[in-house]
What we know:
By secondary structure, this protein is mostly beta strands. It has strands at about 5, 10-15, 20-25, 35-40, 45-50, 55-60, 65-70, 75-80, 90-100, 115, 120-124. Strands 2, 4, 5, 6, 9, 10 and 11 form a seven-stranded mixed beta sheet that branches. Strands 1-3-8-7 form a four-stranded antiparallel beta sheet, with no helix packed on it. A hairpin with a 4-residue loop joins strand 7 (about 65-70) and strand 8. The chain starts with a strand and ends with a strand.
Amino acid sequence: QVQLVESGGGSVQSGGSLRLSCAASGYTYSSYSMGWLRQAPGKEREGVAAIDSDGNTNYADSVKGRFTISQDNAKNTLYLQMKSLKPEDTAMYYCAASTDYGLRYPIPELYDYWGQGTQVTVSS
């Protein structure tokens, strides 16, 4: 079965960096689109970044220029490099997979499989 396991979260000060990883298994990684989404306390889940099976990417306006999504198909791993972190980036970050190989926008409702999440906390 599809499994997505996130890692790399933690606590950093404002302006700091983190790199999240998502190890995928149980399916042909390169045939799915992937995304990073997040949910802050009391808020709805929102899309952060997406990458389709061709490597096309898109980002939420709030993270453009600061976050970079990438993947290593040989390792079945998705990454999210986060720089210049802000307190408003504090959230649980989820890795998600979609059977729509052309999905290039991080719309939460369009993902089929989700990981358990990794917490990112940014202090001012």
